[in-house]
Amino acid sequence: MKKSWFVFILMISTFLFGCQNAEVNSTNEKLSVVTSFYPMYEFAREVAGDRADISLMLSDGEDPHHYEPSAKDVARVNKADVFVYSSEEMEYWVDSLLKSIDSDKLVIARTADGLGSDQHHEDNGHEENQEGAEIIKIQGAADHYHTGDKIKLTAKLEGNSDYEHWHWYTRESADNEWVTVPNQGGPEFNYEAPGKSFEVRAVLFDDAHNEYAESQPVDIVINDHGHAHEDGEETDQHHNHGSEEGSEPVEVIGLADHYHTGDVVTLVAQPQEETGYEHWQWYTRGSHDEEWEAVSGQDTDQFEYKTTGESFEVKVILFDDAHNAYAESEPVSVLIDDHESLDPHIWLDPVLAQEQVKIIRDALIKADPEGKDSYEKNAAAFNKELQELHEEYQAALENAENRVFVVQHQAFGYIAERYNLKQIAIGGLSTEVEPSASRIAEIGNLVKEYDVPVIYYQQGANSAIAETVAAETETETASLYDLEVLSKELQDKNLGYIAAMRENLKALQISIQ
Predict the structure, then answer these.
(1) Which pTM does this prediction carry?
(2) What average pLDDT score do residues 150-165 get?
(3) Strand, coil or helix: 143
(4) Which domains does the chain have, with CATH numbers?
């Protein structure tokens, strides 16, 4: 009898333990890790193994520089255990994203800290700089403005600082994301009033591009006293410059996301309807409060302009035979971004990539201490592969006599520095717009000077225009993977980070030999 009772108790205990264990397993979900763009996604996936669900914010074709997180993205990060990104120089939108996060558990992995900089970010980055918040006052706001008025504001820092790197941001309402205003890099804000009210704020950054101080949002009220046109159409005809319907009959194509000082900006005006007129004029201005200036020698539908160190706006007007403005483009912003001597493409250096992997490892351990052994083992295995990749690059490139390679866009500076190469960027050469004869001649001189057999384009950017340049300069073209996006080509070829970097090495050896 006692034996039967013991067996019964044992069965009940086993059942209850099983239920409890099942309950634990049902709630013991995998770690949720959100990554910003492709390299961060693959690095995190290699370290996490099967202990975490890894998601990628940017899909195929989205530009990490110009990506704007949606409300859904904010909600996803808010629910995550770990958020992985590279740096504010690469993903400039991270600051505003983290300010929208309300999560005490979120662990932030800023992998650019692997460079060994002294830039410290709190684990919950949205709380960063609390002690320095709201010490900027915005002065000069009127009680209201009319559409087309010049809005002139000044940001005053309450305290002493030698920092001079300002950004201004606008948004339509508290429900919208903040958007960076181009060409507003100082404490003065000069802006043409649009047709709707909005909010504005100023942020001051330190020399490491960390947020040092910010203002409270200021409401800018647009009140045309009932005389504004529908859809925000301008009330003053001079804004349309001859376009009676107020439409945008000319499109400017060929604009890159940003340029570096010395790049040649190549744009083309494309009318939306056929016309027999051929008298074009291009104009530039430094900011909204400056007058448009006609650019000498730019009187065709193509614009070629060598940049200085300042961003600017450009527009084009098509005149009829009586020299009346027939059609006009909307202004487009040409952003000059020299990355303040900070190249954001650190993941292209296999040695620095190992440091990024270590930061991801540590973040995962902090969020999931029980997985420490697994994360350390996975990180060590992947870093061994990265070290082998580094040694392959060293062996292949160390004895080369020609150490120069020419690229369309200077994204490969870390590779050049690591392996003692010289990267020369053509800059501004768009595959949407066929270069002029003078531009091709300039590239040809560059090719001859350095005796390069190939011009490199970032993967996905090659086109018939690239082939035209190659034919005219008697060179070939080849692509290099910058790995900013998980592109269709990478997926179709089943190329991960290691394999794509090996493809880059093969391509580089066409020039580096």
Answers:
(1) 0.62
(2) 85
(3) coil
(4) 1-128+349-392 (3.40.50.1980), 130-230 (2.60.40.730), 236-340 (2.60.40.10), 398-513 (3.40.50.1980)
